[in-house]
Structure formats: structure tokens, C-alpha cells
């Protein structure tokens, strides 16, 4: 195993004084794809939010190390500039800021240097084509009036533009039709390489098609109770979580 | 000459304790010094289809601005720079009126009249700037008369230093099928008193006001915009977006006055304010007056701090709080800034905002 990109140790997270995660451990190395599954309300989104640095969540214990640096107390913008990215379930709408202008600003913020307009536009057009996005969306205000599918594609467009070291996708496939899931999966494939890593939260095996998943984690009862290989996805899709959670209980997971 | 009436008076007064009946006393128009207002540093460039006239066109007179009759009269009589323009024909060009306050020319009291002849189309841009340390005064009265079918756009860009005072009265007369559009950016000054008043007296006349403001420090911002509808099928749109920081005090009065005869008239107004500090004083007095039944009037107002979810979303894309704040201010102002018909001026406005926001903080 190469040096860990993300090292979450004994993480305890609360929101409004309610503990959501406790004693959670997770290690992600460059080149890996991790899938996070679990029943509704288990805390999957909380984990992604805590890694991203959502200020609504309080980290009550443990640590989040990223690329050799302890980011536990760092703000979300610092973490983003270090290379962490979260694709949101419900992306924000921002009237007055075009998608293109937002992406250019974000790329400038992450890379510390504003990209040149023409070079940026060419690259953006290519990525939009890959995601089957109408070029006109670049001029539209960010996510305003976008369909659910277009919002998710806009998130993947941001992923491709910002090229983070770790991408967390929080149910990016939810609410998408079959074709849109396929397109989003193409975008994820285009992003992934041996130097970056993915943490995918999903209930749907479709988005994982064509991806070489390394680990599948099941989150329940505040922490990861079971970790297996890609075969676990099919098992959960076919039989649900009950069998795995029961097995985890019996093994003291 | 002393002014006794309230500046920016609300067309129908309400309880005094609400403090929206007129601009506060400390924002009164300063008295003319015994030595007079001195010379101005002003210049203008005419576009095709526009020429100067020596005499104030009578068509432009008879109405008053949002500042009020007395203030208009004072600016008219005390003006140290007056220019009257006659627009004929359709012009795609821009007539520029530039005014700069500096150590030698700290005061500009200007009177401008624009008489747009029937069927003409014309754009005027007023640019008001100052050197950073000047404690100056810019007081202007602009009187516009749009004859039938005329289309007049007036862009006002006020980028004064934080030490100058600004008074800006605009009176508008709109004839049948004519349209007057004002794009207004009040982005500087420690006292800003601005009032536009449009008379929509003839059928299908239209008035559009798109405005932005930025106030910080201990500045006082006071606005009084009025659309008076007496003609059939007349239409007014008055929309303002603002950002307030520090201890700034701001009042905006927006009045749509539907009078008898304004059958099928439509008037919409809105204000959207972003507050960066809990010490900001934000007052809004939207008013719809109605003595004609068959009209449509609507007002909307919103004020709030930056949405925490939006800030987090921007942070997750690498934007630090300052960058996020700038982006959100840009977003709020973009619909108005984008209407400025000159890229150089749009960049000038953005750069001015950028400088103001360098020191801005989101508090509490």
C-alpha cells in the first residue's frame, strides 16, 4: 500500500449535540476507489461533510489527515485548496454568477493562479461535451433553473475542472435517469487516475459500472461495520444490508 | 439659499418615529460657501445625434426630482456647471459626462437637461469620481424629457471617495410610447442622497430604474425613487440591489403612485440588500398609492446576511471568505453592472468595488 492520501482516525462527529459518527476509521490511498454504503441515516453524508469541513458539524474527537497534513481543524476552503472535493447531493443555486465564471474563480482559488480565459474556455467546452452538457449552460447562472440531472453534471464538471486529489461523491447518481447516470459515470472515469482517489456514496451499482472499485464499506451504528471488495455491492443490491449488518454484529464489527 | 423642506421626502408621510419621511438632517445639502462653489473639473463627449443647446429646454422643466423642489431649485440656481442636450434621431453611440472632484475642484454642482425629440434613441453616461483624499461635494440635477416614441438611457456611475458628499436628483417626463431607463450605481461617498422621480403621463410610457449601492463605514445612504402613473398602459420597473457594511445607515423609499386615468398601468419595485454587519441600519419604505382601480402594482423587499450554506459551498470549491464575499457581491450587482454599455466602464465599476471590498468584513 502506498502512503495514505486520507487517514481518518477514531473520528467522532456531532451535529446539534447529537453524535452521528463515533470511532470511525478510514484510510484511502492514491489510485483507490472506495464505495461507502449503508442504511439511510447511518451517517454517510456526515462523514463526507466532516472530511470536507462543513461548519455545521462538530468534530468532537479523532483526526483527519490528508496528504500527510492534519486538517482536522482547518476550514473547508483550506481543505479544498489542499485537494479535497465534495460533490453535493443538493448543490447550491447562485444567481448572478455564471457557471463558467464560477468555475474559473474556483480553479484560480484552488490553483492559486487565475487561468487564461481562452485556454480555460476551450478546456471547459471539451469537458461539457464529454458530459453531454449544452454549451449554453456555461453562460447560465450556477445551478439556477438547472434540472436535477444538470446540477449533478455541473458537479462532475467542477470535479473535472478542479482535478482534486480526493473526490467524494455524495449520491451523485440519485434522481438521475439511466442515461444521465451513464454520462456521470463517464465523467468519473475521465477524472480517475493513479494519483487521485474516489470515495463514492451510493445506493446504486449503476454508477460504479466501468470503475475498478477497491473497497466497499458499510456504515452503520456511527462507524464502518464492514469492509469488503467490489462483490459486496452486488450482494447489498440483491439482499440489502440486513445480512451484512447481522454478520458484522456477530463478529463484533 | 436655505432649504426648509425635507430632502427625499416620502410622497405620503408616515409616523415620524419610523424615520423614513425624509433624509436625516445631517444629510442636508450643504450651504454654498461665501466664495461660491468654485470651478469644476468636468468634461463631456457628444455622440452622433446629440447636440448642446444654450437654453434650458422648457420641455424638461415643470416636474421635480426625488430630492424635492427646493433642492432642485438650489442645484439649478447654484450650479457651477450646466449643460443642456438635444437628442434627435437614433444614435448607437454614447454621450459621456465626466466629473472629477480633486483638490483644485472639490465641488461640482451640476445641472443637466436632456430633451429627447420624438422617435430619438440616445444613451448618456455620467461618471462621477474623486481623488481619494478629497472631501468634496457632487450635487447634480438631471432633467429628462422623452417625447413620443423616444428611448433614453441614462447611466449614472458614482465612484466617489469615502469622504465626499453626493446629491443626485433626476426628474423624468415620459411621453406616449416613450421609454426612459436609468442604470444607477452609487458606490462611494459618506453621505449619498439620491432621488429619481418619473412622470408617466401619457399612454404606454415606460420607466425603468436598475440601481445598486454599496455603503460602509459610518456613511448615510438615502434614496427616494418615485414613479407617478397617470397615463393608460404605463409601465414602471424600479429594482435596487445593495450591500451594507460596518455601521452604514441606509433608507430607501420606493413609491409607485397610480393616479386616476392610469388604466392598465403596471408598476413593480424591489430591493434586495445584503448585510455584512449587525450594526448596519437598514430601512425600507416601499409604497404603492392607488386612486385608479384597474392597475397592477407589486413590491418586494429582502434583506439578509450571506447564506451560510452558500458560503460553505463556495468554500468547498476553494474560495476563502473574502473571495466568497466578492463573488456574492459581484453576483448581486452583475445584473445592473452588465447593463453598463461600455466594457471600460464596467471594469472601472468592478475595480472600484474590488477596492471597497478589500477592507470589508462579514461580522456577527
Provide the fold topology.
The complex is a heterodimer of chains A (253) and B (364).
Chain A: E1 6-15, E2 18-28, E3 33-37, H1 44-52, E4 58-66, E5 69-70, H2 76-82, E6 84-87, E7 94-98, H3 99-111, H4 117-130, E8 141-142, H5 148-162, E9 166-170, H6 178-191, E10 197-201, E11 215-220, E12 223-228, H7 231-239, H8 242-250
Parallel strand pairs in A: 3-10, 3-11, 6-9, 9-10
Antiparallel strand pairs in A: 1-2, 1-4, 4-5, 7-8, 11-12
Helix pairs in contact in A: 3-5, 5-6
Chain B: E1 42-45, E2 50-53, H1 69-78, E3 81-87, E4 90-101, E5 107-116, E6 121-130, E7 137-146, E8 151-159, E9 165-174, E10 179-186, E11 191-200, E12 206-215, E13 220-229, E14 235-244, E15 249-258, E16 266-275, E17 281-290, E18 296-304, H2 308-315, H3 321-337, H4 343-358
Parallel strand pairs in B: 3-5, 4-6, 5-7, 6-8, 7-9, 8-10, 9-11, 10-12, 11-13, 12-14, 13-15, 14-16, 15-17, 16-18
Antiparallel strand pairs in B: 1-4, 2-3
Helix pairs in contact in B: 3-4
β-strand amount of chain B: 35-45%
The unreliable regions of chain A are none
Helices and strands of chain B, in order, run as: EEHEEEEEEEEEEEEEEEEHHH
CATH architecture type of the domain at 6-89 and 165-250 in chain A? 3-Layer(aba) Sandwich
* Proportion of helical residues of chain A: 25-40%
Q: Total number of β-strand segments of chain A?
A: 12
Please give the oligomerization state of what you see: heterodimer
Strand order of the largest sheet of chain A: 6-9-10-3-11-12
Biggest β-sheet strands, sense, barrel of chain B? 9 strands, mixed
In terms of structural class, how would the helical and strand content of chain B be classed?
mainly beta
Instruction: Could you tell me the CATH topology label of the domain at 6-89 and 165-250 in chain A.
Output: Rossmann fold
Estimate the helix proportion of chain B, in percent: 10-25%
Q: In total, how many beta strands of chain B?
A: 18
Shape of chain A: globular
CATH class label of the domain at 6-89 and 165-250 in chain A: Alpha Beta
Tally of separate helices of chain B: 4
Termini Cα gap of chain B: 44 Å
> At the fourth CATH level, what is the homologous superfamily of the domain at 6-89 and 165-250 in chain A?
P-loop containing nucleotide triphosphate hydrolases
3D shape of chain B: globular
Poorly predicted residue ranges of chain B: none
Total helical segments of chain A: 8
